[in-house]
Predict the structure.
Amino acid sequence: MRLELHWVDYLIMIIYFLFVLGIGWFLRKYMKNANAFLEAGRSMPAWVAGLAFISTNLGALEVMGMTGSGMKYGMLTTHFYWVGAIPAMIFLAVFMMPFYYGSKARSVPEFLKLRYDEKTRGLNAILFAIMTILASGISMFALAILMENVLGWDFNLSLWISALIVLGYTYLGGLSSAIYNEVLQFFIIVIGLLPLVFLALKDVGGWVGLKAQLAPIAISKGYAADAFTTTWKYSGSSSANALGVEWFGILFGLGFVLSFGYWCTNFLIVQRAFAAESKAAARKVPLIGAIPKMFIPFLIIVPGIIALALSNDPGKGFNLPVSPGGGPDYNLTIIMLLKQYLPTGVLGLGITALLASFMSGMAGNVSAFNTVWTYDIYQSYIRPRTGNEEADGKHYLKVGRVATVVGILLSIASAYIASKFGNIMDFLQTIFSMINAPLFAVIFLGMFWKRTTGHAAFTGLLAGFLLALLHHGLTVPEGATTLVKGGWIANLHTYPVEMAQNFWTAIIAFTVSTVVTVSLTFMTDQKKSDDELKGLVYSLTPREADDSHLPWYERPLGLAILVSVICIVLTIMFW
Amino acid sequence: MVDIRIPIGLMFAIIGVIISIFGIVTMSDSAMYQKSLGVNVNLIMGVLMLIFGLVMLFFAFRKKKG
């Protein structure tokens, strides 16, 4: 599966990295205090933050994983976008962002502190810090192993060089640099993968030709002829579609619990909206991001579906390499497609796009980690503010920079540890479902029910997380060979596919967290006065300023309606 | 702060020029473009990227004057 790169390919790669580092270099002089470094000075235009918002999520693991899922499940994979992202992004923009941004909290844990209490913040901050380091390490590991297998580069060398580049631009320019580079990365991914989609579709005779080629494949696997090119049509029972999950699991597990937990409360993502220049801009950030997000499936899932057709056509000579655990290695689908269609030149562009997305995966995590570390751990427990704003700003800037270096070193360490784990994407998802789902329950209750108390929220968070762990420890997906996939306590239930197990872990975490938080709220006293909760809770916050004089496309509600309409049209087109 | 459209525009314009030139030079190399179904994707993508880069620069500098 080696790819041959030539000097043109390397030249493109080098130019890209020069620009990446150059952006950090130009931004360094604006980094005068911690606000500028960790919050981008709250000065980003809505469109810049909006593209960074989805770009953070468009890491290489997402691109590789989604193309692989496209090959496994066909168009059903679009559920991760049209059901599993867009509704949550709209909800975040319309309902939650006014409280997040208006509260002046600098991070999600800090919002918990303002709304609830210190211990709730502490719990979330520590879990989140660990999660970002893990995620960043996994991303680095994946990059290094891929470069070793595909380009023949040395594993350790690629790991350390990529870490150094990320360190370079995040150390110099902080969050601004991370955001700017995410925007750059967004464009290079779209432009880098465009020729692939175009050529692959041309090769199979367009969408109509693709459907015709997939029909016999679907039938031979025991599904209806159009099972791989439709989304909801066969979701009535879990055995009729390749995903192995029925409509309830998709709608509630993916569309509600997992996606709202991820898009509305994961600080890594939300931080991009916090960096916007005004509350109105912050509300537009997720909506502006949602517009390209809806079309990303055509860029990364459709090629995966084409790969399924190619692999069943002996004349094409398209085969996936065998994975270490046996069976085809779906994570390499995109690489094999690049190899199949792209000649030198655009190939360099495609590989650069992948490298770019790996690095922004690290940079995103590191820039969220240093913020949470500096504000929620260091400033709260180690050295509180002194009151001298200027000296504090300088001091915490230094701490933020040191945290960046330490964060990268810890990521490198966890990359070496991650080399033990197999399926990267699923492992990441398992972690997400355990931390984010209970967090969403607690933040949602906090924003819309003023009675919710700190003790209840803390217990709810902890209970949701522990029960999710317990569920994972007691169930296994069919065919699991390692304890990483579950069943490390006992095996009480076997799920047909791993995705079903993930969905149910999240559903349980969310439900337990909600029930515990609500019932404990009735048993404990609210320690915060209505005045303290102003701006944090819906019923105690003055209504938004009237924006009806603006044209519809500049109003959050107008954009939200536009996004909903496009999303519904896409869903119906590919029903 | 630096207008992000300037680095984006510059980068895509430079890479666009390089890939276009490479596409023109390799125009007659049909073996190389067999992969891409006989389409000279380098020339097409190079020109597209150059246009995209110039559009970004145009908007960045138009705003500065106004």
User: Anything to note?
Assistant: Chain A is about 70% helix and 0% strand. Chain A touches chain B through 34 residues (CB under 8 Å). The CA atoms of residues 169 and 187 of chain A lie 18 Å apart.
